[in-house]
Structure formats: C-alpha cells, structure tokens
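User: My instructor asked us to take a sequence, write out its structure as tokens, and then describe one feature of it. I'm not sure where to start. Here is the sequence I was given:
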Amino acid sequence: MSNLGEVLTTARRACGLTQEELAAAAGVTQAALSRYENDLREPEPDVLARLARALGVTETFLARAGRVRGGMAIDAHMRRRMTAKPTVWRQLEAKLNMYRMHARMLFEEVSLRAEQRVPTLDPLEITPTDAARFVRMQWRMPLGPVRSLTRWLESAGCLVIEEDFGTARVDGLSQWIDDHPVILINGRAPTDRKRLTLAHELGHLCLHSVEISQDVETEANEFAAEFLMPIEVIRPQLRNLKIGRLHDLKREWGVSMQALIERAHHAGLITAGERSNLHKAFSAKGWKTNEPLSEELTPEHPELTVNIGSALSGKGLGAQDIAHLAGFATPEHNELFPVPRPRLRPVG
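Assistant: Let's start with the prediction itself. The structure tokens for your sequence are:
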C-alpha cells in the first residue's frame, strides 16, 4: 500500500509550506491537495510532476518514499526545550524524515562502508552508563576527553547534518536510515552544547532503536555524560570545584561548565548546596544561557555528506546526476550531498 499522502505532508512541512501555498505552487486546488495528503485520491501523473517540482524533489522520490515500510512519519528522537513551538519542531522532524529518505535513496545506488558501527542495545538489559562504556570500547577510543566527536560518529556511518534551526530551543534530533543513523544538529548552538547534543543523540540511537523505556531523555543524558566524561577518568578532577577550575576543565573536556557541575553532583563529589551555589554564581554572571570559553573549543564540523558528494563527483557524476540519485529535483535543492564547484584556473 502506498503512503504517498504521508510523503506529501512531510515534504510540505519540511519546506515550511501551508496547504494553500503548495496547492498554489503546484496549480491544484487546496481541496484536491487535501485529498492527496489523506490518501483519498491519487494525483494524476502530470499533477504529481508539478507537486514534485514545487517540493524540490523528483517524482521517483515521491513514489519510492511512499512505498517504504512504515512510511515517513517515524518519530524522531529530539533534544528540545518544553518551550519550543510545535510548528518549529514538527518542521524539523519533517526535515529529518526527508533527509533520511534522500539518504536512503542514494544508499540504494551507492554503498557506504564504515570503519565502525553504531550498536543497538536493549535499555532493559544494559544501563546507559555501561552502554556508553561499551561504545567507547568497541570504537577503541582513547581514555579521557573525546576529540572531534563528529569524526567518530561519521566513521561509524552516521550522517551528521548541521543547519541553523532558526531557534535556540531545539538542539538536535536523530533517526535510523536502515543500517545508517542520521543526526540533525542546530548550527547556531555553541560547540560545547553541540557536543553534548551529539552524544545525547548517540545515546538515543544506541538505546532506543528497538525497545523504548519509560524515561528516554534521562537515559540519553546519562549516556552522554559517561561518553564525554568517563567518571573513572574525570572523578579526581571534579573534587573541590571552583569557577577557575571549571574554566580549565571546560577547555580540557570540551563540555559546558554546567555539565561538569551536574557530573560532579551526580557522582556525589559535590553537595546539593555546593551545586546550588555554583548555579547561582552562573546566574549572577549571566552564564546560564551564554557561557564563556565556548569559542575557544575546537569546532565540530560534519564532513561525511560533503565527502560523499565529492566522491561521486570524482567518479564522473555531474551535479544533476547526484541530485537525482538522492531524489532532489535540481542541484540547487540538493542540500544534503553538495558537489564542490570546480575551481577556476588561470589561463596564461
């Protein structure tokens, strides 16, 4: 059975379009579009072509995505604040779904060989802390701080996509594309917050792909804390925390000072009163929302999607070929696997 209506709705949301706007762009009535989206009627081939163009995708993409088992509306794991507007996070969820399907379409034609893999674990059989230790061990990561977290994720076949969400209230979200996970992360977040979000989403991908437990957010937070700050390594450094000490630890571990405070409190290395006093000091300095030193941390830059575009270009595929492989209408619509523009050579 086709889920074309679900695909049209998801694609429209991802573009930030209302039914009226998409109907006008495709030259159909809103009533007709509503019937298409609710699977009450199949669009004629010429109408499907116009809808695809208006959404920036190919007709093949709409047809294939509509036949995927489970459809498009797979709930994403999302790190967001309670105050995030539903219209914003629903659009981001739709965008992730679209990226997931574009990547899936490309991977049907191009195989991606990863050095490692993101393991899927049962949260009923393993604690988040042990899961984080298992992943670090399986990936043969060195003890101590995680350098270039994005590179570790990408070496395990995870697509990391960064874009400005237009709000600071949503940090990131994740899903699986068959055997490959995808994480969409907010480009406007400071580096320390990006790193925590990446580790948090990795926790979701590892622990919540099959079995969903009662408190998935707490479990993802616990996973992220152990993954980025292994307690057996960092424990001696978290005693007698002072502001100056937190500055040094932030530079060393690449995480926020507030995350370090929470880590110390969770491990019983500072009292509730000491934790409260530190947070009060942060509030007085205006650091609760804007910590210092974040710009000193090594930035996290995703490279895998760009490298895929470059590799396909290197094999002789043109920008239009690559866009169509991934189901984009034109190279301009292909934001996922960008193709490097040829450099101009001086003639002399």
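For the description part of your assignment, you could build on this observation: Strands lie at 77-80, 159-163, 170-177, 180-186. Try explaining in your own words what that tells you about the chain.
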